[in-house]
Amino acid sequence: MKPPQVPEQPGGDPPSRRGRPPEPICETAGTTHRTWLEPVRTRLTASGLTLDDLVSRSGYSKTRLSELLRGKGYYPGWEITYSVVRALDIPVSPACRLWKAAAVEAEKDATWIKNRILAVQAPAPEEQPVAHLAFTQAMWQPYTAYARAFLQSDRRAQQVVAETFDILWLTWDEATASPDTPRHAWLLLHARVMARAPKRPGGHPDLRAAAFSTAGQAGIHDLAERLAHIGVLARFFDTIASLPPDQMDVTVLRYLCGIPADTVPGVVGLPPAVTHTLDHHARGALTTLLPDTDTQE
Q1: Which of 63, 196, 241, 247 stands the most exposed, by the fewest C-beta atoms within 10 Å?
Q2: Burial class (CB in 10 A: 0-12, 13-18, 19+), 199
Q3: Contact 81, 58 (CB under 8 A)
């Protein structure tokens, strides 16, 4: 049954009706679970649909939908998740990949995941927005290098970057409506990486492991000298991680990932003059704190 039509007002468009935001996500919802749940909640609020409307469109009860939207209780099956995704006109392919990753996080076995997906009739293949595809191809390498510096794992770095681009696809309208799409995307990646990066007691990310993978120390054959060199670099990288976020990001891209200076602005979504200033201030701070360490390692 369709919801009643809102009558038009004389001399104008019909008034918009916005749905009430759902209750907050439960603290027990995992990090990966939130990657698809938060965009779904945002889309529901922006759509103006009420929970009753979603019940009508999805075929599931208000109680079950409310639990799904809060991340409450057991991890939801793909059937109910898919019904909400379709009701809100959200791209299915990236949503399904994010759902699968979160199911693994929730310790669902491969058979359960496969059966839940097979229970839903597969939709027709979706076309990835051309602009999103081009952006993904341009940013995959620098994004992955940045994630690898903090996570020290190719597999984990690629997972978080793929997750970032899937979230970006789900929220592509929002991203392209933002003042600067590359900046919007970079902040999304930064948040995803920081959510998974190991932390130091002070709360900043732990970059010390990167000291073991620099080209400079790899060429030192004397063990004692090599360990001493690693110790200096570990302190240096720890200092980088304690810089303000934008300074840290520019420094990591330039000196740990080897991204050319003229490429960094496009990656982080900031004007060249701003990234140059961030680089200058970061190098000054690092030289003051650790004057004997070369940023070119």
Answers
A1: 63
A2: exposed
A3: no
Q: pLDDT by residue (tens digit) across 192-245?
A: 999 999 998 888 898 877 765 543 444 444 444 444 444 556 777 888 888 899
> Radius of gyration over alpha carbons of the chain, in Å?
23
**How far, in whole angstroms, is CA 55 from its chain's centroid?**
29
Residue whose token pair is 């990835």: 128
The string of DSSP codes covering the chain is -PPPPPPPPTTSPPPP--PPPPPPPPTTS-HHHHHHHHHHHHHHHHHT--HHHHHHHH---HHHHHHHHHT-SSPPPHHHHHHHHHHTT--HHHHHHHHHHHHHHTT--HHHHHHHHHTSPPPPPPPPPHHHHHHHHHHHHHHHHHHHHHH--HHHHHHHHHHHHHHHHHTHHHHHHSS-HHHHHHHHHHHHHHHHS-B-TTSSB--GGGGGG-HHHHT---HHHHHHHHHHHHHHHHHHHTS-HHHHHHHIIIIIS---TTTHHHHHT--HHHHHHHHHHHHHHHHHH-TT--TT-
DSSP per-residue string spanning 55-103: HHHH---HHHHHHHHHT-SSPPPHHHHHHHHHHTT--HHHHHHHHHHHH
Alpha-carbon span 102 to 116, nearest angstrom = 13
Q: How does pLDDT run across 96-110, given as a tens digit for each residue?
A: 999 999 999 999 999
Structure tokens at 255: 């000196």
Beta carbons of 269 and 229 less than 8 angstroms apart: no
